[in-house]
Amino acid sequence: MTRRKKWVTGLLACTALLALLALGAAGYRHWKEEQTLEAVQSMYELYNMKYPSFRFTCMADYAQFDYQGLWKRAHTIALVTPEDELTQENSRGISETGDRFYNAHSVRTVRALQFYKNEREYEETFQMVEQCAMLADGSVVGMDESYPMQKGDVYLVFLCESGWGYPIIVSADNGKFDLTKLRLNNARRQPLIAGALMDLRLMPMARSRSEALEYFPSAKYVIDNGSSYYEEEYNALYNAHQWQTMEIRADDTLPAMTLTVEYAQTEGGYLYHMDDLILFAAVE
User: Of 83, 103, 139, 255, which is most buried by a Cβ count within 10 Å?
Assistant: First the structure.
C-alpha cells in the first residue's frame, strides 16, 4: 500500500470514528432527555424546568366544553405544529420595561398538518393567540393552564374569535390538547382528549380497542386524593378493586409521554384511575 493510500484509509477511518462518536453523543443526549421526561409528573414541572420561572397571572372560571361543545364553539379545528418559540417579540401586553403586563398574550405562527374545520379558510400557515407571554427576563406569565406551545410539537386546537385580530383557543386552554406530551395534560381532561383521538383517528390504528378504552371518553369525576379530607374514602374505593392498565397515545406522542390509565370493571361500568383521580363510566 502506498503512503497516499494509507493516508486516505486513515482519514476515512478517523471520519467514520468521529461519525460514530457523534451518533453516540446524540444517542446519549436523547437517552438523557427521555430519562428527564419520564421523571416529569406535570406540565407545571416541565415548564419550570424550561423557563426561569412560570406563573399564572390569575385563576378564573371558564366554560368547560365537552367534545361536541368544542366542535360547535370553534370556527377552526386543526392539528398544528408551531413554527416559532414563545419570545418577547411575539408577546403582547407587556410594558416597555418588560416587568409589568396587562392582558398578556402572544401571537404564534403555526402550520396546519390537518384541518378538520376551517370556516375562516386559513392557509396552511397562519397565526393564532395564546394567553401567555414572555417577560424581559425570559420568565413566562400565563392565564390558568395556558402553557406555551413548543416548536416542533403537535397540538389539536379548537379556535374561536379573540378580539385581537387572530383566532384564540376556546375557553382559556380548554380547546388545546398537547399530543406530544400527552400524559401531562390535565387528568380531568384526558377522557375528552381520548375521545377526540379516537374520533379523528389520531390514535395508532393497530392498537386494540378494548371496551374499557371505548367507554373512557364518557368517564366522569368521582373522587381525588388532593385533600386529606377524602383520603380514607379514596383509599377504600381504590383498594376495593382489582386494577388493570391500558395505554393511550397519539401518533405524535413521545414514548415517555404515553398515558397509562388503570381501570377496573364494576357493576354497571368502569372505574378509571390516574394521577390520584378516580372517574366512572356507565356501560349502558
Answer: 139
- DSSP bridge pairs for 270: 265, 281
State CA 184 to chain mean position distance: 6
pLDDT confidence of residue 247: 94
* CA–CA distance, 92 with 107 (Å, rounded to integer): 8
Contacts of 89 (CB under 8 A, 6+ apart): none
Q: In Å, how far are 82, 259, 270 from 151, measured between CA atoms?
A: 5, 22, 37
CA distance 262 to 271: 8
In this predicted structure, what is the pLDDT of residue 284?
80
**55 DSSP β-pair partners:** 141
CA distance 175 to 160: 9
Three cell numbers, residue 66: 365537552
**Taking a C-beta distance cutoff of 8 angstroms, is the pair 119, 158 a contact?**
no
Model pLDDT, residue 32? 38
Q: What is the pTM of this model?
A: 0.84
142, 54 in Cβ contact below 8 A?
A: yes
Beta strands, E only, the chain? 54-56, 76-82, 91-94, 101-118, 125-130, 132-134, 140-142, 155-160, 168-169, 176-178, 220-224, 244-248, 259-266, 269-274, 277-282
